[in-house]
Design brief:
Its main location: mitochondrion. Keywords: Aminoacyl-tRNA synthetase, ATP-binding, Ligase, Mitochondrion, Nucleotide-binding, Protein biosynthesis, Transit peptide. InterPro entries: aa-tRNA-synth_II, aa-tRNA-synth_II/BPL/LPL, Fdx_antiC-bd, Fdx_antiC-bd_sf, Phe-tRNA-synth_IIc_mito, Phenylalanyl-tRNA_Synthase. The chain contains twelve helices and 16 strands. With 457 residues, it is of the alpha+beta class. The chain has an eight-stranded mixed beta sheet, sandwiched between helices. A four-stranded antiparallel beta sheet has the order 14-15-13-16, covered by helices on one side. It has a two-stranded antiparallel sheet with strand order 1-2. Strand 9 and strand 10 form a beta hairpin. The structure holds 3,4-dihydroxyphenylalanine. 3,4-dihydroxyphenylalanine binds next to strand 11 and strand 12.
Length: 457
């Protein structure tokens, strides 16, 4: 099972490198207006532009700001647990950022796959929809007057769509900074660690006392001891966060009448080593939940260069982490399909209220309609399921339930490739008519013919 929504960018992209689609230049030639308006700014489109209108629409929703929506309720819950612990909460950042903010400032190499058009929504060559909340670290490091901060925001990645994947989702970034010039700095770090509320979770962490080694190195400007204490502060903070959220999930499942055995087991987490371009050492936490390890949150000690890029002085050091909210909210509220978060149906929205973790009560689904689309691809051109999904969604919006490549073969004589995709159209809110689906489906066919030169079979 893939877990792209909460898997840190770097790991998920690494594993997906092999499947990167090859875009043809033609695919972008005609589709976009000269300018895209977003949050009062105008962006001149160019050959990098690939953000479709339905994604721009999603940027208006700001689910994390809605106090009665599961994502907003989860944000509130985490914030309330950290209220008196020295953090500032930023929840209003707009989704358009520069490539500098999203990548360069964090030290992403120029050829990093996260920069590719197949994974990221570009407004144009210089601006994109943030792919992670880390894009705002630099401005918060500079602006923040408390020792730490949290940023919650909607983030965007081109992806397939199914029950656990959606191109828009939510992350919460946390960070904490100290000055090395603090009197008795290491003693202060110990005190700060002791002031993190205790948890009773079971922690597997083979490198707790010696978190750095050449493969996950300490930065030169800090001592071994400082790296160790800051790593412990980071890990205990995340354990506290995870403890609160999963204990709440457990309580709400019990209240809803569940008697499953996992609800009586103590919460177990494990730390694994990771790699991110802007932290060293780097770690990830995984939570044992319902019989599997859930990858939850990437983290690490922030590279000094990132802090200097943000305008901080060279005595500063600290940690950062990023956690995906949608998968956790699905567990917390018993929501079976990530797309429900975006539903405008009152049968969904009226089930949730500020401050309450209610278990979602499913309502009937309407039957779907399957349509196949088969074609020959020209020459050596390559078409990816994500590309087809994007065309389907630009005409069908949320009526596109799934797009699956069900057949592919190469003609032995002509060498031409044939593909067949099955598209399932379905509405969360109503029955669809064959006529409306026919109209949508032929628009998809026309787009594929126009942009990829396929011949429909
Ligand atoms: N931005 C990362 C992602 O989207 C998550 C992350 C990892 C954030 C490490 C951090 C960090 O601040 O230190 O996958």
């Amino acid at each position: 099972m893939r877990t792209a929504k909460i898997v840190p960018l770097v790991t998920s992209l690494r594993s997906r490198l092999s499947q990167l689609p090859v875009w043809t230049a033609r695919a972008y030639s005609t589709k976009y207006p000269q300018e895209i308006q977003l949050d009062g700014q105008s962006y001149k489109t160019d050959e990098w532009t690939n953000v479709p209108p339905y994604i721009l629409e999603l940027t208006k929703r700001q689910l994390h700001q809605n106090p009665n929506h599961p994502i907003g309720i989860l944000r509130d819950l985490i914030q309330s647990n950290f209220k008196d612990l020295g953090y500032t909460f930023y929840n209003n950042f707009k989704p358009a950022v520069t490539t500098v903010e999203n990548f360069d400032i964090l030290g992403f190499p120029q050829d990093h796959p996260g920069r590719s058009k197949s994974d990221t929504y570009y407004l144009n060559k210089t601006h994109l929809l943030r792919t992670h909340t880390s894009a705002h670290e630099h401005e918060c490091f500079l602006d923040c007057k408390t020792p730490g901060y949290f940023i919650t925001a909607d983030v965007y990645r081109r992806d397939e769509i199914d029950r656990t994947h959606y191109p828009a989702f939510h992350q919460m970034e946390g960070a904490r900074i100290w000055s090395k010039d603090t009197p008795n700095f290491e003693e202060q770090l110990v005190k700060d660690i002791e002031s993190i509320p205790k948890t009773n979770i079971i922690v597997e962490d083979p490198v707790r006392d010696a978190p750095t080694h050449p493969g996950n190195p300490k930065q030169d400007y800090m001592t071994e001891k400082q790296a160790q204490l800051i790593s412990i502060h980071l890990k205990k903070t995340i354990e506290f966060l995870v403890h609160n959220v999963f204990e709440t999930a457990r309580e709400s499942a019990k209240l809803a009448g569940s008697t499953e055995p996992y609800l009586n087991e103590p919460l177990k987490v494990r730390w694994v080593e990771a790699y991110f371009p802007w932290t060293s050492p780097s770690f990830e936490i995984e939570v044992w939940w319902k019989g599997e390890w859930l990858e939850c949150c990437g983290s690490g000690i922030v590279n000094q260069q990132v802090l200097l890029n943000a305008g901080l002085t060279d005595d500063k050091l600290g940690w950062a982490f990023g956690i995906g909210l949608d998968r956790i909210a699905m567990l917390l509220f018993g929501i079976p399909d990530i797309r429900l978060f975006w539903s405008l149906d009152e049968r969904f929205s009226l089930q949730f209220q500020q401050g309450k973790i209610a278990t979602f009560v499913p309502y009937s689904k309407y039957p779907g309609i399957d349509r196949d689309i088969s074609f020959w691809l020209p020459g050596d051109s390559v078409l990816h399921e994500n590309d087809v999904m994007e065309y389907v969604r630009s005409h069908a919006g949320d009526l596109a339930e799934s797009v699956v490549l069900i057949d592919e073969f190469v003609h032995p004589k002509t060498g031409k490739k044939s593909q067949c995709y099955r598209i399932n159209y379905q509405s969360m809110d109503r029955s669809l008519t064959r006529d409306e689906i026919n109209v949508i489906h032929s628009k998809v066919e026309n787009d594929l013919v126009d942009n990829f030169d396929v011949s429909i079979r």
